[in-house]
Amino acid sequence: MAQAPDTTWNGSVQDGDWANDSNWSGIVPISTDVIQLSDSSEPITTGLDQSLVDPAALIITPTMTGSIASSGSPLRFGTITTLSMSGLATETWIDANVTLLTVDMQNLNTNAFVICSVNAGTLTNSKIHRGKLQFGAACTFTADVGAPNVSDLELTVVAGSTCITLRVNGGKVFYSASAGTPDIELNDGEIQQLLGLVTSLIQNGGTYLWKAGTITGGIINMGTFDAATMKGIKTIGANDLIIHENANVNLRDISDLIAGDVKPFGNPRILFNDGITITL
Known about the structure:
About 0% of the residues lie in helices and about 45% in strands.
C-alpha cells in the first residue's frame, strides 16, 4: 500500500530552497515524515544538508521533473527507511543511509540518479528495476538488479564503493567496486568488470566481460565469460575459478590470468581471439 505523504514539494516560491516552508504543501520535512517530490519542474538547489533528518520515506514520482541537487552538492539525509525513485529529472544526487531502495525509472540520462557520491551511506537492500543510475564512491551496498530481458537498465558501480552482495538478473552493470568482500551472482544480463575486486563470482547465465581487476574465485556454470574482448590486467586470487562444461570462456591468452588457477570441469571451451578453440 502506498504511503500517504506528510508533505509534498511544490517549489512555489521558485527559489529552489528545500528549507523554505513555502515550497511545501505542509512544512519543511522532519524526521519520520513521508516526503513526496511530485508535480513540479522546480529544481531543488539549496538547503541541501538535511543530515539530521531521518525520513520514514522519500517518494520521487515520474511527475518530478526538476533536478535535485548537483554533483559535489547532493541532497543529504541521515537514514531514509524507504526511498522510492521513479522521477524524470535530468539529474538527482542524494546521499543517505537507505534501508530499502527501489528504483524504477524511465530516465536514461547520465546523472539521472546518483546516490552516495560524497557522504558515506549504506544501502541495506536495493531493488533496481530499470533506469540509469550510479552507486557513488561513498556507497556501501547490497543490490538485486534487473529481470530477464530487461534492456533499459544501466547501473554504474564506481571505484571506491563497497559491494557486499550484487545479484544481476538483467540489464547492464559497469562494475569497479574496490572495497568489501563482494559476492556477485550473474543470472542474466551483462556485467562489465572494469576495475576492482570480486571475492566470489557465481555465473549461471548472461555475459561477464572482464577488463581488469581481481576475481578471488568462483564458479562459471553457464553463460559467456569473456576475458579477451576488453584487454587489461586481470588477477585470479587465492581461490580457484572453476569453469563448468556448459560455459563459454574466452581468454586472449593464459597470461591474462597472472595468478591463481583455472580449474576446468567437464569439457569447457577456452576460446582464443586468434580463432583457436581448445578443450580442456
